[in-house]
Every structure is written in C-alpha cells, then in structure tokens.
Amino acid sequence: MNAPVYRKWQCIACGEIFDEALGSPADGIPPGTRLEDLPDDWLCPNCGALKASFILMED
Amino acid sequence: MSDLKIPTELVAPIFNPASYADRAKMEKMLAHLRHNYPLSIAEVPGYDPHWIVTKYKDVREITRQDNIFHSGDRSKTPASQIAEQMMRDYSGGKPHIFRTLVHMDPPDHTAHRDLVKENFMPQNIAALETSIREMARRHVDHMASLGTTCDFAGDIAMNYPLEVVCTLIGLPKEDHAIMLRLTQWFLSYADPDLCRPGSVLTDPEEQIKTWQIVYDEFKRYYGSVIKDRQACPRHDLASTIANGKIHGCPMDERSMISYFVIASTAGHDTTAATIANSMWTLATQPGLLARLKAEPALIPNFVEEAIRWTSPAMCFIRSAAEDYELSGRQIKKGDLLYISYLSANRDEEMFDTPYEFRLDRTPNRHIGFGYGAHICVGQHLARLEMRLLWEELIPRLESVEMAGEGKWQESEFVCGPKFVPIRFKMN
Ligand code: HEM
User: What's the pTM value of the predicted model, to 2 decimals?
Assistant: First the structure.
C-alpha cells in the first residue's frame, strides 16, 4: 500500500509553514492532519491570518 | 473586575524613556498592571488617555483585527499631545512624520507590504545563508581579535545586523555607519549616550525636532540612491523599493523615503538588541553556554527564547476605528490602545515560568515579532542571522562572564542593552 501523500501549506501573510505530515502536536494537531480537516475558524498560529491564507507549496 | 483607571503615579513611567534604564523595575510594573489592572486606562498629564493592554490574549485579539484597530490614524508610538501636534504641523495635518508600513492600514498597507513580501519569505531568505554566514564569521573573528574583554553591544551586536541589512538594501560599506547613527538618533532620541548631538533632552519638543532632522537626513541620503536605482536597477532591496509600484502607480515620495527608513532602522536595531541581550544572558545564566555547546541543535530555541526575553519592540499604539467589546471592557471609537508586546510575552496565562529563560519552549508562541497583518516582515531574516551568528560563535566561545555592569537604553519604544561589558575566552 502506498504511504499517504501529505502536503505543505504556507501562510501568505507571514510565511509560516503547515506541514500535514508533522501536524502541530503542541497545538493539539496530530501528525497526518490535512489542512482541509482543520476547523474553518483555525488561524495561522504565527500571525493569526485566516485558514484561507494558506496556499499549497510547490515541491 | 479590576479598577478601570490606573493610578497615575503607577503608570506614568511607561511613557518616560528614562524609566527603561531600570529594566527589572519596569518588568515588575508591567506584571503589576497585568495582575491588577488588565486592560485599564492610563491618564497621564500631557498625554491623551490610553488603554494599557498587557495580556497576551488581548494583544492578539487587537492586533489580529487591523480593520478595527488602526495603525494609521494616530501616532504609532507613545507620543505626548505636544508631540502629536508637532507631527501634524510638520506633515501638513497627518498624524505621522514617517509613512512606513507600520503606519498604514488596509488597503494601503496590503499594497505596500506586497512589494517586499516575497523577498522576505523564509525560502528566499534561506538563499542568503552562505553570504550571511560569511559575515557572521567575520564578526566572530573580529571579537576574537579583541582579546579577552569587549563591550559586546557596541563592538559586535550593533554592527553585524547593520552589515546584513545594509548589504541587502545595497548600500556600500562606507555608508553603514551613517545608517547606524541615524537609527540611534531616531529610535534612541532620549538616551543620553545615543541621542543626536545637540539634543536638549529636557525639551518636550525634542523628539519631534529630532525626527524631522532624521527624516530630512534620510531623504537627502536616499534621494541619490533612488535616482541611481531608477536609472539602473540592480538585484537589491533598494531597486525593489525605488521602482515599486502601488496599484500600478509610482510610490509617493514620503512613502518611498519612509520605506527606506524602516528597512534601514527596524532592519537592524531590534536584532542588535536581541543579540546583545542574548550575550548578557549567556554571561549570567550558569550552564547555558555549556548546554548550547553540547547541543548546538538547541540554537534555534535559544534564538526564539531570546526574542521573547528581550521583546525589543516593547510596544506600539493602535486606535479603535469603531466601538468594540474586549474582555468585558467597552472600547469606544477613537480610543487609543497601548499594546505591550513585552508584557504579553511575560503573561503567566500563556507561558509557564515566564521569568525563566528556557530552551525547552516548543513551540515558543511569543509575539515579539508582533501578530496580525503588521507582523514583522523581517522575522525570517532576523532568525536566520541570529542562528548563524551563534552557530559560528558558540563553538569558539569557551567561557564568558560580565566584566562590569550592563546598561539598558533609555527608550520607551524600541529598547535593548546599550552596554554589555564581557570577559571571555575564545579558541
Ligand atoms: C529580533 C528582531 C526583530 C524584532 C523583535 C522585530 C519586531 C517587530 C514588531 C513587533 C513588528 C510589528 C509592528 C506592529 O505591531 O505594528 C515589526 C514590524 C516590522 N519589522 Fe521587525 N523586528 C525584528 C527584525 C526586523 C528585521 C531584520 C527587519 C527587516 C529587514 C524588520 C522589518 C520590519 C518591518 C518592515 C515591519 C513593518 C511591518 C508592517 O507594519 O507590515 N524587522 N517588527
């Protein structure tokens, strides 16, 4: 079976990276959490921008 | 509910640059405000009333909403009524002398920030690592050449970030000292050791007189840089700014000069303050140097905690563009809010043992770089240059201790140590 493909997203306001593979355990987000599965009112943990400010990073 | 009005004698020092020479006392005062007067009003003679915002969650709630809490309608830094009036007189009715990113609101702010945003994204900053590491190494070599004692603040901390940012802007080496001098006049206008020669520190108009001089000096200096880069663009920040278009039109003169001012001042002063305070901490916290030598992978944590610890951009002002209820208080349209990043970074509700310098805060959610749309554009550069400096210095630093008393600047806005005398051994 193929390993799931996780993606990286970047906050266009401040440059913070959300790596789905790593999640953010200290903020209660386990590894392997998809950005789309985060609640809609989730904010960038660095600058407070809306979830919609995260764009897919190219490899 | 705590009292709405803070006793004047308790809160007045917050507006007085001289108070900050005694950092420990100011930290105690902020803790007292946080515990007994969270979100309360300061009415200090000579100043309009300000809400004093000391709690982490309140600071974040305000700074996240730049559509409600404006940066452009009033002075962005603590200013007396006289100072605000003088700024209006000087700038033809505007509340600021400078018109930097810090002083703008959307949509202007967004348009101006977009101009440099990409250059400062972490992946683009990472590309500078080799050249910045080379600068870091040279400053470390310079420290080694000083023997066994130095003033780390003046000899190293002030010069390295200055070189980094001036190189990024594209300024020749011989002009870096001009940038340092103008930055000190501007941000440390009230410090007797760093202020503009000829300043009359007892004159309530001094701050604005100095700022006018600083603006004019920057304008004189950057006038020819702008002409040069417009005629012949290069791969530097000066070319990006000089040729910057806002909504398809060239930037107005005040915004362009101010863009250069913020890059040439904010771009090094706060980093220098953090680096100086980091060394002060290394020299006084037993075991810290040994731990970092044994585990260099902790250097990024050291950098992050040093930013929280120093919080060199201690405060900013916002004004309410509409009525707003915050933590049970009624903020009215037009009210001024003094945002204390320093106090927020000591808030016990957010940080365990906030008065301990700890390498194990992960993630370290300090707001030393601010929060919301005005969050520091240079944060990734500042982190990189500090990490590189410590990666170069710590393996060579065998021991360090204070060789005398350190001194903090007398500054109510951006503040750091101005004198860090150390005795050290390097290999
Ligand atoms: C340790 C180093 C630094 C600290 C602690 C720091 C702190 C801050 C803070 C707190 C703000 C937010 C202002 C607000 O709330 O309105 C800010 C904004 C800013 N900083 Fe920094 N800064 C640092 C380094 C730098 C560097 C290296 C640069 C540039 C090369 C820089 C450029 C700026 C600019 C242009 C802004 C304005 C952003 C805006 O209003 O959109 N800073 N900084």
Answer: 0.97
